[in-house]
Write the structure tokens for this entry.
Amino acid sequence: MKALITRKVGMTSTISEDGVVQAVTLLSASPCVITQVKTNETDGYNAVQLGFEEGKKQNISKAQQGHFAASKVLPKIIREFRVAEITEDLKVGESINPEVFSVGDVVDVTGTSKGKGWAGTIKRHNFHRGRKTHGGRSYRRVGSIGSMYPQHIFKGKKMAGQMGAEQVTVQNLKVALVDTELGVIGVTGAVPGPRKSIVILKGAK
């Protein structure tokens, strides 16, 4: 199973053997503990639940503490990963280390993008600004949003609204470096989200 919960550290660059400079995002990847295993027989699908980072007991509800009792950990963050089949090494309490990834692996990265707040249509949807000549007074307005018939605004109309702060997945990035001692994985290219945000790393299908 190639999947980890990580935390974004920041960006840097590396120079390959052929002299090409490439941007690399560093991810802090401490071992993830398996807190639950779901199977087709009991849950209707195969999945593995991972826990990441040690949480404080007073911040975890009693229901969650009972759920984590079998794995003997109290993780701060948990995520579920679907798998094709449950192998023998996927047992509650076992750890998944950064060693599951190696340099050259192709991965999919999922994170929450930076929130931009309430944004207008020019910033949010790349609308064109209105003319500033010949009496034009509509510079950054939305413009016409309806039609003569039917007399309502269609769902999905591009308008001003909340921008960013949504789940984004970047596919087919390559693993550039794996440092098991420091617990760091480097991924080529940019990864969504600010520093210290949670990033899900999965092997590409």
